[in-house]
Amino acid sequence: MRALVMDGCETAPAGTTGPHVLLRDAMEGRGWQVETLHLCEMDIAPCAGCFGCWTRTPGECVVADAARDVARAYVGSELVALLTPVRFGGYGYHLKKAVDRLIPNISPLFTVLHGEVHHARRYLRYPAVLGVGILPGPDTEGEAIFSRLVERNAINMRAPRHAAVTIQTSSEAEESLNALRAALVRVEGGER
Amino acid sequence: MKERVLLLVGSPHASGASAMLGAQLLDRLPTDRWDTHTLRIYPTLSSDDRWRDLIDAVHGADLIVLSAPLYVDALPAAVTRAFERLAAGPAVSGARPGQRFMVLMNCGFLEARQCEVALSICNRFAREAGLQWAGGLSVGAAGRMTPYVQEALDLAAAALDAGDEVPSAAVALASKPPMPAWLYVVVASAFMWFEARKHGAHRRLGARPYVPAMGGGRE
């Protein structure tokens, strides 16, 4: 079972602690083979909104930077974890930059899904999505916006299952780990 | 003394739907009471000088209008970065009481309601940055300027000019879909097909270049 962590934290990981380590431990503990991409270390430009990935080189961005590797790894996984500091309820810059560049993975053509217009699928299979938001402390509104964003992404990226969880930097590691494990159970569709 | 309105365009395109919708709103503010100024956010990411210009413009504005496209259910990454920098930097401590922030979102889907999360993020940013939330409008169908949208902009501009929040009537008008969903699917898909044909890519629209990454073509 291949899983991808898109680590959108602001700084490169240092040492053996931190949210990405907790997340990896939780995922590996449930049998996932985890690849982590530290997005802040990768050369990824913001999406230029040119639609070239749809109308010039369908399925691949026309900009040859590391976003291509992220998009390839995304569809090659069965589970993708979106790890990010929660900014105003949404994703931080590094994760958002990479997520914006995932649109080659869906079709430029449109369809109706859940009563709304969305892009059609390009691939037959897509990974489940787990959103992991990092908050400095309790923030009910921020958590609600974050959950809703993950849910909307799951619809547009055609994720078969999704879940969102927030962990607080002020929490004990064990508490965060338990929250991550519970979210993994949800996104896996239940205990295995 | 005139009030100052700053339009921040959050699209990579200088003359796309976001710039057009924002300009249409500013055009509706009475020129005898408003000075208008427009800046694009994207170029500020790669230039310290341009970022300082943006900070100065934000600091000097009575009303800030962000006009941006929806990118994957939220604001484009460049706008996210600008928000992060504004909320963390001196622009926050420099925010004057009564500085207002209004948002115009547009999306390539038919339903304007798909911008709902982006508006929530903007609202939250406004509060964290010490700006007064003046409301938001969402326009679907790729920012198509329908009579409903024009009327919504009329109402929004009148409210902003009066110091009020964007009224719910304007929100409802702006979000009226200009056509049924099935027709939008046909029209928007045909647009993409013709765009691809210009580049000789129309026969490859359904290409799956990353299937090998999926473990030997498990599709």
User: Strands of the largest sheet of chain A, in order across it?
Assistant: 2-1-3-6-7
Give the helix level of chain A as a range of percent.
Answer: 25-40%
CATH class of chain A: Alpha Beta
Quick check: average pLDDT of chain A? 95
Summing up helix and strand content along with how strands pair, one would put the structural category of chain B as: alpha/beta
The number of distinct helices of chain B, counting runs of at least 4 residues, comes to 8
| Number of E strands of chain A | 7
β-strand number of chain B: 5
CATH superfamily of chain A: Flavodoxin domain
Shape of chain A: globular
What sequence of helices (H) and strands (E) makes up the elements of chain A? EHEHHEHEEEHEH
Please give the alpha-carbon distance between the first and last residues of chain A.
Answer: 13 Å
- Rg of chain A over CA atoms, rounded to whole Å, is 16 Å
The CATH architecture name of chain A reads 3-Layer(aba) Sandwich
Terminal residue distance of chain B: 65 Å
Q: Count of helical segments of chain A?
A: 6
User: How much of the polypeptide of chain A forms β-strand, as a percent range?
Assistant: 25-35%
